[in-house]
Amino acid sequence: MTTPPDAQRLVEQLMADPGSAESRALLEGLLDGRVSSLLEKLQAVEAPRLLPVPAEVRGFRVRLDLSGAEPPVWRRLELPGDLDLPALHGVIQSAMGWYDCHLHRFRTGSDPRAPGFVTSFDVEEGEEGTLEDGVRLDQLVAQQGDQLWYEYDFGDGWEHRLVVEAVLDEPPAAPRCTGGRMACPPEDCGGIGGYQELAAWVRSGYDAAHLPAAFDGPAHAHSWLPDDWDPDAFDPARVDLALAAAAAEPAAVTGELASLVEELERHGSHQLREVLARPLSHGPTDVGDEQAARLTGTYRTFLDVIGDGVMLTAAGYLPPAVVEQLADRLGVSEWWFGRANREDLTFPVAHVRTAARALGLVSLRKGRLSPTAAARRLGADPQALRCHVVSRLPLGTSDADRQAGWMALAVAGSGVPAGQWRGEVTLLLHALGWRDGDDRVSPPPAHSPTLDVLEHLAGGPGVRTHHLQEVDPAVAATARAVTAPR
């Protein structure tokens, strides 16, 4: 427990001149108990003052400033008065862009040294005080000019001041951001001083002369600094998305995908959580017979063309006549350049064959590609074939393929149009730590065997996926059927 300032001064006085008459009198008082009540009072934890809960909930327009930042780093927020402190903590984290990986504390009044609240973690650690749980914002502020202090990361010491700019008769349904300036400092950068050095280096165009002394060199700094961090950037729409995602509950997902959500959260990224919190991520997992037939059309066509089986060429490819027939029936010939009759030169057809084999629909034995028993049993039943595809996803045995597959399924299941899948998957893989193999800095490509299957379900190789900008509920439902807990 921190020693109160008055008690500290008494101790310092005794230590400075223990032989003085005043100090001897104080010591005598301590020995006979005459000043024990004074010390007990000084050492008591002062409780924050709480206002009565108002009869009607109002809202507050507040400005949240990061103390000491120059130029100012701030956010303007509209908040409902009945927001409790743990929820307000989440709002501040999302609005500023912090990763919520350190301790925090709220304090009341105009003085940052004023009485504060303790968190559940503090209580578990044996600290005493007023618990923040259940304490509402409108019990701490009531009128224009009222203030609240928020400290995050006691090591770096990020102090924030929340000031009420206006009282709103109608509270917002949910917290929202209406303005702001500058990007949030990177986590663990050494407080305001370290942040200012980093910002100066980035603003200089990464000039080596401005490289902070904490780094061994530019490569070390780039590997530590969040990708594309711009100290002067601020996007209120992005903050609103983060606030909405923080308030929304993510869809329940299967264990492996849930572990990836937790991994990203530990590293401060809420991107995957935001995807799973989208409304369509909570949607159904079943589709009608007509939609099942459409979704499985690519694989049913492939199985129909190979029939009871085909012998591959000496080089291990489908015969040219079979490739040409597949290209025609799958619609590849309508957009493919050149004559689509060689599998090694017609990758859309090659991808269908690869996916069909990975899905357990065809097998290769002694140079002959044949439908499996499962394919013979399910090929005429689109619903059963769709369920079989669901049971096999995600594809791949490597960590890279499986994680890319889970990201593709999460994105597709959230209702994002197929034309936007690759961009979102790339960002998620980058957050997971994957990088381009050439420079180990650039974001990785989104390609994966699972993404191929999803694109086949969305329209097949006859459709240029980047042209698909409409939500496909049937594809989204199929992706969710994979990610939903079984």
From TrEMBL:
Plasmid pRiA4b Orf3-like domain residues: 60-236
Superkingdom as given in the UniProt entry: Bacteria
SUPFAM superfamilies, per database record: MM3350-like
Gene3D superfamilies: MM3350-like (3.10.290.30)
InterPro entries attached to this UniProt entry: MM3350-like_sf, Plasmid_pRiA4b_Orf3-like
Record's protein name: Plasmid pRiA4b ORF-3 family protein
Organism name: Nocardioides cremeus
